[in-house]
Amino acid sequence: MKRIILITIVGIFSLGNLAGWAMTKNDRPFASNVNPETGEIGVSENYTEWPTLGTWAHAKVEGGLG
């Protein structure tokens, strides 16, 4: 039983390590609007015209910290 658990744990760590290695081999940025050299994120010129998908806020609670 201990051998099966050990093999399972080693297998899980190996797959995680392989996934991390595969992600570092990707030469293109995470998203097409990210400059890989500076890390700057670009947006369209008309981003202020994009529709709002929703908003949220926390209500103030009487006797609370904020």
Brief overview, please?
With 66 residues, the chain is an all-alpha fold. 35% of the residues lie in helices and 0% in strands.
Keywords:
flat, mainly alpha, 66 residues
The ordered string of helix (H) and strand (E) elements is H
Please outline the major beta sheet.
none
Number of helices: 1
End-to-end gap: 52 Å
Rg: 23 Å
Tally of strands = 0
Helix content: 25-40%
Write down the overall mean pLDDT: 78
Percent of residues in beta strands: under 5%
Shape: flat
What structural class results from the helix and strand content?
mainly alpha
- Contiguous low-pLDDT stretches (5 residues minimum) are none
Quaternary structure: single chain
Question: Explain this structure to me?
Answer:
There is one protein chain. The chain has one helix spanning 2-24. The radius of gyration is 23 Å and the shape is flat. The longest helix has 23 residues, at 2-24. With 66 residues, it is mostly helical.
What is the strand and helix layout of this fold?
Elements: H1 2-24
